[in-house]
Design brief:
This protein is α+β, with helices and mostly antiparallel strands. Among the domains are: 47-169, no CATH class; 268-335, no CATH class. It has helices at 2-12, 25-35, 47-63, 97-106, 131-140, 148-153, 164-169, 177-196, 210-217, 268-287, 290-299, 307-320, and strands at residues 17-20, 40-43, 73-80, 83-91, 94-95, 143-144, 223-230, 243-251, 254-257. The strands form three sheets. Strands 3, 4, 5 and 6 form a four-stranded antiparallel beta sheet that branches. A hairpin with a 2-residue loop joins β4 and β5. The protein is globular, with a radius of gyration of 21 Å. The chain starts with a helix and ends in a 16-residue tail after the last helix.
């Protein structure tokens, strides 16, 4: 689907700016650039914003400042989407990491200020007490800059996932397919009401920065914010061309990546592994090579089962979605 989108942009509107909000963010942006290297595209994700808001809570609690806006927390993000880390965080030129360490030690059993904590809180599929985020900081000295549910899925299989019980112990929630189906149904029904005029649209802020990004590209003020674009050296120890997440400067007619620096040694092995797997997967998709796709599959840190079980699972997944995979030779599944 994204290959088709990239081809049409190349053939019809090659000078257009393309903003993608779609997951899997890294692979979608990688595909746009693979098909149309000259595309002007970037991927947007609000996970770093959520971490800025969390750090604003740290500032409010530790410094008694009163309300602090997330934009006041200046950060240097580095990594890949949903496994992004902050190597710096400042408020009014104050280094926040010492404060954050104290905060994490005080709240390592869970922070009660960002979500519901009653007996039914797990029924909120986006609830979190930030235990994973704080645990990662205390272990590695770098701040995980995504929600716990995302950070967990890029760590080794049984650290924070592995079973529903383990997830409950880490005080975050997972999103079931049933909720996704229900949410999609409700959104499609609302779309129909909006089109028919039965419901009036409400204009308001969403927490995303798309509007400000467009304004900056149009020359209506500069902006620095996190985006996902191919690596041009902004993270020098990740592969060139791999889609990475760092800050970028938005200004009239341009989006220029900020040089974020090398990955800290404590997290480099984890992030490099994920980036390599994503590159391998992109290559397998481009070549329609199921063996390469399977190699990416079994290298994923969440893949903790045996090779035979992994083969069976991969084959079942492919066969159950075969109507979407007509460009692949599924007979290759018997040769994995």
């Amino acid at each position: 689907m994204y290959e088709y989108i990239a081809e049409k942009i190349r053939d019809v509107v090659p000078d257009a700016w393309v903003i993608s909000y779609t997951n899997p963010m890294t692979l979608c942006i990688k595909t746009l650039y693979r098909v149309f290297p000259g595309i002007r595209a970037f991927g947007c994700c609000h996970e770093v914003f959520g971490t800025q808001k969390f750090l604003a809570k740290v500032v409010e609690e530790k410094l008694n400042t009163g309300p602090v806006e997330r934009e006041e927390i200046k950060v240097n993000p580095v990594g890949v989407n949903h496994f992004t880390w902050l190597t710096e965080a400042r408020y009014m030129e104050k280094d926040l990491f010492p404060l954050y360490r104290d905060f994490c030690l005080e709240h390592k059993d869970g922070y009660k200020g960002t979500g519901p904590v009653d007996s039914n809180w797990m029924n909120n599929h986006f609830a979190s007490e930030e235990k994973v985020k704080m645990d990662l900081f205390l272990r590695f000295g770098v701040a995980g800059a995504a929600g716990d549910r995302h950070l967990a899925e890029f760590c080794s299989g049984n650290w924070y996932l592995g079973s529903p019980e383990n997830v409950r112990n880490w005080h975050f929630s997972l999103t079931p397919v049933s909720w996704r189906k229900k949410d999609l149904k409700e959104k499609l029904e609302r779309s129909k009401r909006l089109v028919s005029g039965e419901e009036e649209p409400v204009i308001g802020l969403t927490g995303e920065e798309g509007t400000n990004q467009i304004r900056a590209i149009l020359g209506l003020g500069d902006l620095v914010t996190n985006v996902n674009i191919p690596n041009q050296g902004q993270i020098p120890d990740l592969p060139s061309g791999a889609v990475v997440e760092t800050n970028a400067v938005f200004s009239s007619g341009s989006v220029r990546p900020v040089m974020a620096g090398k990955l800290p040694e404590s997290i480099a092995p984890m992030v490099k592994r994920i980036a390599s797997i994503q590159e391998m997967l992109s290559d397998g998709i481009a070549k329609r090579d199921l063996k390469t796709v399977f190699a990416a599959f079994i290298n994923d840190p969440l893949m903790t089962c045996s090779i035979d079980d992994a083969k069976a699972l991969f084959k079942e997944m492919c066969l159950n979605t075969r109507k979407y995979l007509t460009m692949y030779d599924l007979s290759e599944l018997d040769m994995l």
